[in-house]
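Our collaborator T.R. sent over the components below with a one-line note: 'Predict the complex.' Nothing else. No constraints on interfaces, no templates requested, no preferences about which chain binds where. So this is a plain run: every listed entity goes in together, and whatever single assembly comes back becomes the starting point for the next discussion.
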Amino acid sequence: DAKTTQPPSMDCAEGRAANLPCNHSTISGNEYVYWYRQIHSQGPQYIIHGLKNNETNEMASLIITEDRKSSTLILPHATLRDTAVYYCIVRSTNNAGNMLTFGGGTRLMVKP
Amino acid sequence: GAVVSQHPSWVICKSGTSVKIECRSLDFQATTMFWYRQFPKQSLMLMATSNEGSKATYEQGVEKDKFLINHASLTLSTLTVTSAHPEDSSFYICSAREKGYNEQFFGPGTRLTVL
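Returned assembly:
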């Protein structure tokens, strides 16, 4: 599976949009982009995933560039409870084990 | 839906003892379960992949005789840390994947402290 690059940390003001970037320049055509987050001392929580098109759900929006080499996770109105480590993961549909390979993630700090 | 539980949530044990951690899928049948380990301020590292009814597949560097994995039913997998030592102290997290789906759902984790 393709590797991803994320900034190690970001700050965001409460109530503002949090935009978390992810670079996956070596992504191939059959690889999805997944986002998970991990609040301190808890298991990871699935947020959203996409292949080519932008996606939106009740938690966040995922914007994938046309060349698919990067993506941005958007939390439209960040709250203090969104403080967590956010992981961007690229996974092939052919991944026989369907395992997830976690990188370093981005530690998002939402400040009042 | 798609809830995964782990028991216990935390455990403290003496060096040399064995500890069993349970991972259960509460509302779906998990054909595959994964076990991860996370040291402080580090990312999750996959230890092994467990398919129901078959032997687990361990990642390189993970001792299969030390970390015993049993996936005897579609809703339960167990990880036993045998002869635990202080360096095994970590946050152990399982995830489960339902048959026919790609998404994994994670348990809340078990914090193991070996004295």
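Summary for T.R.: Chain B has no helices and eleven strands.
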